[in-house]
């Protein structure tokens, strides 16, 4: 449904932009409001749409803003604003669900031989692209193992792990297309010794409460590091911080290192390795982005956030800021990585019933896999799916996503 355009200076040059709203489960229907603004944030027009993942064609002045909001009386209202919008853009709401997709039940048939000398059970880790994991123990021979995937999942892969007195061993299937009918048969490799990867982080980590290193053999690589294997350290106090070796299959592996004090500060890096390194060795001052401090400037109509880093971040691609409206409602905005502040646009009272009261989080992200701001601004959630990135945060760690 389209409402009459708002007659404000600068709004008359609006051009069509495609906007896809927050995704929901297939049994859920929702109504969303879509708003256009000029580059300064003045309200230009609005539309409403309903469905599992509502979408509209909205007229937006070049360089303007677009805001999408779930209904105000929803248990957890979600608002997102895109900036620097161009004619013909396809804007995707940064939802944790993949848009327009739902779960499909996939059954697999896995056959493998016993490993001589195995002293533990056989752990099967079954994954489909876009992130689902089934973790169970099975016996040698042929077993049926099921997994729930998103509708657009096309492939599955399995890793098997066990241990002998000599150490851990892995067997794995290649990435295998999901069968159109019946079970998907996964051909499992011979058993091979694990690669052992210890992790060392140099620098004073006393400002952080938690250190985690997550390892994700690929594929799947399309949804970032899920952490099939992980190392953790609470209250790090030594320099360097050394985490014990993790047994990994010898194949391409995403590794994520996160330094975090929940809801206060966070820094992280993600890297893709052709095979697990003999040791993971990173340094706080050179491998991570610097500390960032952010400030919330309240305003009942046009709140603002500004930020400074301990040293320049020359190649930042995107900044995501998220405000608390109340305990469960959030309003997020994206802006180019070169910015040092952002003012939120004008919203009508029926969309923003309560003025934001605080900054929930701010994240600055730099990725060597992204060719600048224009490559990420339409679908900001994709920054977390790139193989190699660095992030520094104030407040909640992954700001701007739902």
List keywords for this structure.
Immunoglobulin-like; 402 residues; twelve-stranded mixed β-sheet; six-stranded antiparallel β-sheet
Structural class: mainly beta
Number of helices: 1
Categorize the overall geometry: globular
Strand order of the largest sheet: 3-2-5-6-27-26-29-30-22-21-18-19
**Spans where pLDDT lies below 50 across 5 or more residues:** 220-225
Level-2 CATH architecture of the domain at 195-287: Sandwich
Which percent band covers the strand fraction?
A: over 45%
Q: Which fold does the CATH topology of the domain at 195-287 refer to?
A: Immunoglobulin-like
**Alpha carbon gyration radius:** 23 Å
* Ends apart, CA distance between termini: 25 Å
Helix content: under 10%
| Largest β sheet strand count, sense and barrel closure | 12 strands, mixed
Mean pLDDT: 88
CATH class annotation of the domain at 195-287: Mainly Beta
Number of distinct beta strands: 30
Describe the structure.
By secondary structure, this protein is an all-beta fold. Helix content is about 0%, strand content about 50%. Among the domains are: about 105-195, Immunoglobulin-like, CATH 2.60.40; about 195-285, Immunoglobulin-like, CATH 2.60.40. The strands form six sheets. A twelve-stranded mixed sheet has the order 3-2-5-6-27-26-29-30-22-21-18-19, with no helix packed on it. Strands 9, 10, 12, 13, 14 and 16 form a six-stranded antiparallel sheet that branches. Strands 4-1-7 form a three-stranded mixed sheet, with no helix packed on it.
């Amino acid at each position: 449904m389209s409402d009459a355009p708002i007659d404000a200076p600068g709004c008359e040059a609006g051009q069509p932009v495609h906007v896809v709203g927050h995704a929901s489960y297939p049994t859920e229907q929702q109504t969303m409001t879509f708003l256009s603004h000029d580059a300064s944030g003045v309200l230009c027009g609005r539309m409403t749409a309903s469905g599992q993942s509502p979408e509209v064609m909205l007229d937006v002045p070049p360089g303007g803003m677009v805001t999408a909001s779930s209904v105000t009386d929803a248990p957890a209202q979600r608002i997102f604003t895109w900036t620097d919008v161009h004619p013909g853009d396809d804007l995707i709401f940064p939802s944790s669900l993949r848009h327009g997709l739902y779960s499909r039940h996939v059954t697999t048939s896995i056959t493998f031989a016993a490993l001589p000398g195995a002293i533990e059970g056989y752990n099967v880790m079954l994954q489909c692209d876009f992130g689902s994991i089934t973790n169970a123990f099975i016996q040698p021979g042929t077993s049926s193992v099921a997994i729930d995937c998103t509708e657009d999942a096309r492939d599955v892969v399995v890793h098997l792990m066990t241990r002998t007195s000599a150490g851990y061993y892995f067997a794995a299937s290649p990435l295998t297309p999901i069968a159109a009918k019946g079970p998907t048969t996964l051909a499992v490799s011979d058993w091979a010794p694990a690669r052992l990867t210890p992790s060392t982080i140099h620098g004073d980590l006393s400002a952080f409460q938690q250190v985690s290193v997550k390892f994700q053999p690929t594929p799947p690589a399309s949804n970032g590091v899920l952490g099939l294997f992980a190392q953790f350290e609470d209250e790090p106090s030594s320099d360097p911080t050394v985490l014990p070796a993790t047994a990994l299959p010898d194949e391409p592996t995403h590794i994520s290192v996160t330094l975090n004090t929940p809801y206060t500060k966070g820094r992280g890096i993600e890297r893709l390795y052709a095979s697990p390194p003999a040791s993971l060795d990173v340094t706080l001052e050179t491998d991570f982005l610097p500390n960032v401090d952010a400030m919330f400037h309240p305003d009942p109509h046009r709140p603002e956030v500004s930020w400074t880093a301990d040293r320049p971040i020359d190649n930042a691609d995107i900044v995501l800021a998220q405000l608390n409206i109340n305990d469960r409602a959030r309003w997020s905005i994206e802006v180019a990585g070169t910015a040092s502040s952002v003012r939120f646009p004008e919203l009508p009272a029926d969309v923003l019933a309560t003025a934001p009261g605080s900054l929930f989080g701010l994240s600055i992200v730099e990725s060597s896999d992204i060719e600048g701001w224009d490559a990420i601004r339409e679908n900001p959630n994709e920054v977390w799916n790139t193989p190699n990135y660095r992030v520094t945060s104030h407040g909640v760690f992954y700001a701007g996503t739902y």
